[in-house]
Amino acid sequence: MKALDIETKSLVQEHPEYALQPWRLLKNESEITLIAMGDGDLAEFIPWKELNGMPKETFVTWNAIFDVSYLHAQGVDVARHTWVDAMLLCKWHDNCQHNEQLGYSLAACAQRWIPQWQYLPQFIKLKAAEADPSHDKYWQVRAKLDVMATYLIAQVALGKLTPKQRKSAMIEAKNIVPNAKAYVRGIPTNPSHYELPIPGLSRQMAEIECRLGVSNTGNHIGGKGWEPSKILRSPKQLAETIYNKWGLHCNQRTPKGEPSTDKAALTYLADKDDKVLEILAWRELNTRLTKFCQSPVKASKYLSDSVLHPEPKIFSTYTGRYTYASKIKSKFPIAMALHQIPRGPDVRRMVEAPEGKLLVEFDASGQEARLLAEIGDVHSMLDVFRSGKKIHAVMGASIAGIPYDEFMRRYKAGEEAYAGPSGTYYCGKFVNLSMQYRVGAAKQRVMARVQYGLRKDQTTIERWRALYHHTYPEVKSYWQRAINLARERGYAETLAGRRYYLDKWGKDDRWGTESSAINFPIQGSGGDMKNLAISMLNSKYPELEFAWDLHDGVFVWAEKSKFGMELVLEARDALDNLDYESAWGWKPRIKMPWDAAVGVRWGDMKELR
DNA sequence: TGCTAACGCGCC
DNA sequence: AAAGGGCGCGTTAGCA
Questions:
Q1: What is the CATH number of domain A192-305?
Q2: Which residues of chain A are under the pLDDT cut of 50?
Q3: Which nucleotide lies nearest residue A319, CA to C1'?
Q4: What pTM was estimated for this model as a whole?
C-alpha cells in the first residue's frame, strides 16, 4: 500500500476555484501541478504517466474521489489500481451520534489519529498558514506531509476496524473509481426542459400573488423584473398574513413554537379557506421554479455546458447512503439537486442520454420492506414475500376486508374502490410504507392527507395501525429487540457490519435514539446493498458506466444497441443473485429482486421484463 | 457583507 | 403525552 496526494491549480485567473473541479482539466481550465506518492516515512513526486506504467498498487488518499477523478481526467487508467480513502476509514470507525464536533480535514484527523507523529506540529502549522499558490515550495512540502499523514492514519484506522468492517469498507472503496468517473463524465441535460418552463411558472405565480394581494411592490404580472412574493416566501411574514391579517386559527406550531405555515398546516386550513389552497399551489410552483429550473440554469451558465456535475459523497450519511452536492464551497453552482428531483416525468426528463446511449435504472424492489422482514425476523412478512403475493395488495385486501384473490380480481379489473387514487390498494401501500418505523398515529393521519391525498379520520387510522400489527405481529418485537440490542452493545449494526454508535439515551433524545436503533440496520443495510451492487456491476459489466445513485436505485449508461440491452438484462440477473454470503456472510431467506428500466430520458423509462 | 439558525420541502 | 429515520437546497431573519 502507498499513499498518494495531488495538488491542482486553476488556469483561469478570475476563477481560482476551478482548481477544485476535475472536469475543468478537460477544457484546459485547470491542471494537476504535482503528484506525491509514498508511505509514512518518505514521499516523492512522480509524473502522472508513471501511474499507468507501474505494477498494480493499492493507493490510499484523503477524500479519494477528488484525486481519482482528477487523475482520470488527466488520462490515468485509474481502474488499474485499487483506491482506498483514509477519510472513509476514519468515518467507518467514528460513526456515532455525538460526532458533530468531529472535523474531517486531514489536519483534524491527524491530530485525533496520529497525535504522536513527529511532524504533526509542523504539519498543523503549515495547514493553518495562508496558502500562497505562487510558492511551489509550500505546496511541495505540504503534499509530502499529506502523503505521510494519510498513510499513517489509514494504518491506524484499518487496525481499529473489525475484519468484517474492513471487508465492507473495501467493497465500498471499490466504488471510488465508478463515482470518480461519473463525476468527471457529468450528467447530460437538455436545457429546454428547465429553461422553457420559467415564464409560465412565473406568470402563474404572479397571478396567484395578485389574487391574494401579496405581490412585491412594483411587480407586474409577466412584467420584467418580477420577483416572487417576499410575503409568501417568508414563513414569518406568511404566518403574520394568514393568522393575524386573515384571522385564520393557528393550531400547529414549529419546533421553536412559532405558528407553522408548512404544508400540513396549510392543507388543513385550506378546508376552511380557498385562499390557502392558492398558497399551496404557489409553493409548489416556487420550488419548481427556483430549485429545478433556475438552479440548473445557473449551473449550466457557470459551467458553460449543459453537462452538469453533481459531486458524489460516499460517506456523508451515517447510514452509508450516498449524497450529492450541487455547489462547490457552498457557492459555485455545478448541478441541480440530484436527489430531490420530483418523481413525475416533468422535471426528470431534463436528464437526457447522449447520442448512442441509453439511461438504465436498476431498482431494488421493495428493498426496505424485504430488509425489515429479514433483519427483523418478521416471519409473517417473509411468508408474504415467499408466496409471491404483492405486499401492498395483501394490506389492501385486509383493509377492504376481502380475500386476497378477490381483491386482486377487482384490482386488476380497475374497480375504483380498489385500484383508484384513494382506493384500498393505495391505502395498503400507504400503511406498509408508513408503519415500518414507528410513526405516531396523529402524524400518520397528517401524512395520509398531505402526502397521499387520503382523507381519513383518526379512528380509521387507528384501525389500519392495528391491522398492520395484526398482520405482522413480529414488527413490534423487532423494534424492541433492536432498541435493546443497541442499548446493550452501544451501537446498531448493518448486515455488512457498519456500525452507528448510540449514546444519547437521556430523556430528551431517547425517542430519536431508539428510532435510529430501529432504522439504522435497515436503511444502512440498504446502503450496503447499493455498494455491493455498484461494485459488482463495475467489475462484471464495465461497459455499463455508472451514472448516479438514488439509494435503492442505481443508474448507469448503456450502449444503445442489441448488445447493450442484452447486457442490461444480464446485469439485472446478476443483481438478483448478488453474493451476499461471501460479502457479508449473510444468506437471505427471500429474494432480493431488482427491476430494470431503460430510456432516453429520466422520467420516461420503460420497464424491462 | 458574510455567517448561522430556522423553516419549509424535494427525494429515498 | 407524544414522538419514524436519512439527506441537501433555497429562502428569510437576525447578528456581528
A1: 1.20.1060.10
A2: none
A3: C6
A4: 0.96
